[in-house]
Amino acid sequence: MAHRQAYSNSDILENTFASLERRLNLSITYYDVAGLCSDEHGAPLLSPLRQSHRKASVCGIGYDRPRCLAHCRGEVLRRASLSELPFTHICWKGIEEVAVPLWWHGTFMGLLLAGSWQGQAPPESQLNRKEFERVYSELDVLREAVSDDIHAILSAAGKGMLARLDELAQGLPDERPTSRTEIVRRFLRYQLAQDCSLEALARVLHLSPSRTSHVVRDLFGKPFRDLVRAERMQRAKTLLLSSDLTVREIASRVGVESEYHFSRLFKADCGQPPGSYRRMNQNV
Fold it and tell me: Which of 13, 86, 118, 152 has the smallest count of CB within 10 Å of its CB?
């Protein structure tokens, strides 16, 4: 039953995005920054293609991984992480997109990107690419009224998606956690890549660190460090299967500074290195 429900939730999310793409006549990409677009078992709810610009023909032509990642997963994500307000941006190819940051409980969760439009004349380096120039010339110019409408629609859709993910994280209706249990789960969910220490949780619970340690063990049957590790590994699996982030980037997203240390933790937990896990399990 649980797997049928997870499949249904996956269909609902993907079909929602596909419907929006048809209605708005544009491509929508979602960057799952927090790695939380998964069901209660950690299975990704969106396909890897949903998190890649290369599914859009104009972005796939002349794809330059270092430059594209530096702009979209670097510059644009940094801007989105500093404000909840939607914005437009023009990439190094001269393509304009609408960007909608998604925040939940004060945490930057992800980014919706919609497009594409003509932003400026293609750079000289692209003018020799006849296919790109042809596709680019067929793009519309983004009007302010259209941009405002897309901002509103995607903001609403994104918040609805995050609310649904939040419900999934709490388990089935007959398994609603106690208030203190829910606080711990939410803390792990939203603080994993930030200050996810026992001392930080103690401040949230208004308890001493030693008392917090006992409370966590009583509630979950395991020490706090084991809870953190399990959450990190589940989050990492989701990101490995649903994104093209590097292992180093995933390690940072789940709160592990060292890529080497992260790889050791992952292999100890899953029996294989992160790269092998991705190759064997990713359905592209």
Answer: 152
